[in-house]
Amino acid sequence: MASTVELTRDSFVDTVRGDGIHLVDFWAAWCGPCRAFAPVFEQVAQQNPDVTFGKVDTEREPELSAALEISSIPTLMAFRDGVLVFSQPGALPRPALEDLLSQVRALDMGEVRAQISEQQG
């Protein structure tokens, strides 16, 4: 069983809007940093089966990439309980990815939603 899932335009929204934590890697086969980051992403995915680790191939999903304004790859996004809580281009070393995941786990989502509401209001 794969520890990462391929996300497409058809599955992306349903996946990231769901409960729990969803890390999404935007990548392309021709991208050297993407290929270097892939094993790190896979290793952390294997150690965290309670988290969805999704991959979006920007070459196969150009409309999705454009809609999310992906301008540099790799780009990593983190969603928790349907809320985008992190988005940053660049490959992360394993300790940084593990730290990011710990920070996402520790978020008080009530507080996050209150901050979003305040910014929009």
From TrEMBL:
UniProt similarity note: Belongs to the thioredoxin family.
Superkingdom: Bacteria
Record gene name: trxA_2
The protein's name: Thioredoxin
Pfam family membership, one: Thioredoxin
PANTHER family (alphabetical): GEO12009P1, THIOREDOXIN 2
Lineage: Bacteria, Bacillati, Actinomycetota, Actinomycetes, Kitasatosporales
CDD domains: TRX_family
Keyword annotations of the record: Disulfide bond, Electron transport, Redox-active center, Transport
Thioredoxin domain boundaries: 1-106
Native source organism of the sequence: Streptomyces thermolineatus
InterPro entries: Thioredoxin, Thioredoxin-like_sf, Thioredoxin_CS, Thioredoxin_domain
